[in-house]
Amino acid sequence: MRAFIVSVNKVAWEAIEDALTRPTIIAANGITCLKERSKYTDVERRACHENSQALNAIFGGVDLDQLKVIFVCEFAKEAWTILKNQHEGNDVIRMSKLLILTNRFENLKMFENKTISEFYARLCEISNRLFALISAFLMIKWRRPKILLLSSWMS
């Protein structure tokens, strides 16, 4: 999905990472209010447009069931977080997946009745999933020796 959004517009992906919020102003009485769209600066308009591009790419890249869950989202980051949690789970679930995949990798064997291509496909599947999970953990600065060992093996 990330590649799809970047292909639409690299800045659209940055809109997800930067987590756009609605522009606000401080009223005369000191209360913070949402800014009217007609008073947006060019930078704020561009940021809203990039958020719309990212949100449109996300909406176009999911099936109908997922779209029903994220359709009410106004910001791309919000929709992305919902989808990420739906697919990857929270940190506890990710850690469990990581341990399961690590175990599958450590116990990987080639059987006599399988071809090298089939073994290689299994190896790629496990290593790609491990790499994706490890990348997610390293982004949140999770530190665990086995994860760091695997990440150094992957690079």
From TrEMBL:
Recorded superkingdom: Eukaryota
Query: What Pfam families would the database entry show?
Result: Retrotran_gag_2 (PF14223)
The protein depicted here goes by the name Retrovirus-related Pol polyprotein from transposon TNT 1-94
